[in-house]
User: What shape does this take?
Amino acid sequence: MFALIRAVVGRDLRLAMRRQADIVSALFFFIIVVSLFPLGIGPEPDLLRKLAPGVLWVAALLATMLSLPRLFADDHRDGTLEQLALAPQPLGLVVLGKVLAHWLVSGLPLALLAPVLGIQFDLDADALWVLTGALLIGTPALSGIGAIGAALTLGVRGGGVLLSLLVLPLYIPVLIFGAGAVDATVTGMGAQAHLSLLGALALGGLFFAPWATAAALRIALE
Amino acid sequence: MNNRLINWFKYASPQSFYPLAGKMIPWFWALAAVFGVAGLYIGFLVAPTDAQQGEGYRIIFLHVPASWMSMFIYLVMAGWAALGLAYNTRLSGMMAQALAPTGALFAFLSLWTGALWGKPMWGAWWVWDARLTSELILLFLYIGFIALQSAIDDPRRADKAGAILALVGVVNIPIIYFSVKWWNTLHQGASVSLTKAPSMAQTMLWGMLLCALACWMYSIAVALMRARSIMLERERHTEWVRALLGGKSANQE
Amino acid sequence: MYWNSFSEFLAMGNHGVYVWGSVGVMALLMILEPILIAQGRKSLVARLQRQFRAEQADTTERREQGTRRSKN
Assistant: This one.
């Protein structure tokens, strides 16, 4: 089981490495969106500190969305996906591997980059740590839930926009607890509860989403 | 394969459901009208005023049934979706597709009446109250469902993809609701909240229940109407639709 | 009956705009929806009937030529 997941992750990472431009552009999208907010709002540190958690998290959601349409599209086009669906190994595990690979190339870099952007918003060290931690915990849930949307819109016209329409409402709990964790740290309430709930969401998402995704993929392949 | 199923499953085939639905629709309209008139009569003419909110509270007779319906319809939709995935019946997908626009309509009406209620009560058209916010997200979920179904050309795939989305949504709705509630209590405290419902007099409760029943009947009638159109459209290549429509035209000629 | 006069009923204790705004929009949409569905159905039926008639004419023509249309 783990061998299968590791094989899928390794393969997807190798493929992603061949298209590094995609990863980099998603990251720059994240950086640019976050940097636009102070320009739109004004440079007062108090205001920025208050807005930082929400802005960073919303930008992270949008940046995750960017790479989702390609999660299954390439494999679908060259027929790999059909092979995987026909293989004796459960499709859910393959999907889990692909979700983990997606997280490694989209969620993980976002989380590592976020503290740098947090400094732009005058967050203190504690808040930066929590921001990184919350993104590390929360982004796997984003990849998992996003995979369902990517599978449902596979090969559908207008897939990209439709995908965001389907997936963004489902991201709301992650957004609330993720931004809430940072916000709680800034206001000095402690982020423990938020981070625990975020972890529960991520585990739940990684456990259930692959099966729903596998079902959606089978429908798309019919 | 259909022969082995229980007898009432025969109504799951569009061919026999179509005329049955046609016979039922007028009855549901009649019931909707009776319940609606009775509920509005009690709500707007008989019920006493509310001590706290004045006459503006009467919006409750529209707002609460609309909110209830928007939530129930999503559940019913998910129920049809689950049936469709489990038994692969053609009818299920059609019913889910027929219900979605009505559910979205009620979600919108709930937001609209909520805003018009909020203005005199809170002094603002919109507040980020947990219930209003959840209702808004529910509207987004309906819109996603409708958009997904209309983007997929093959009806069978549209049905199944929609079914998965509806089930994912139904699992997520409680999570979304509790997260929004949590967010709301953290950010606003108990400053504004709809929970201070007027202490329900017996007449108010009756008015609200009758209005809710009227909305139920309305939804069923409208959903059946829409389902009949969807059936004709999808089954246009089958003999029964040909006999139904072709026969008519033959008589006219 | 709770109200003393019709104008009082319309005023709704100074909340008339809000109450009647809710009632009006809800009534409008709930009347509009079935009308739209009925119209859509009517045009659908007309379209299908046209289509069937065209096919029928087509098949009778073909039958005269000696070919049989297979059931789909």
Notes: Residues 12 and 19 of chain C are 7 Å apart (CA to CA).
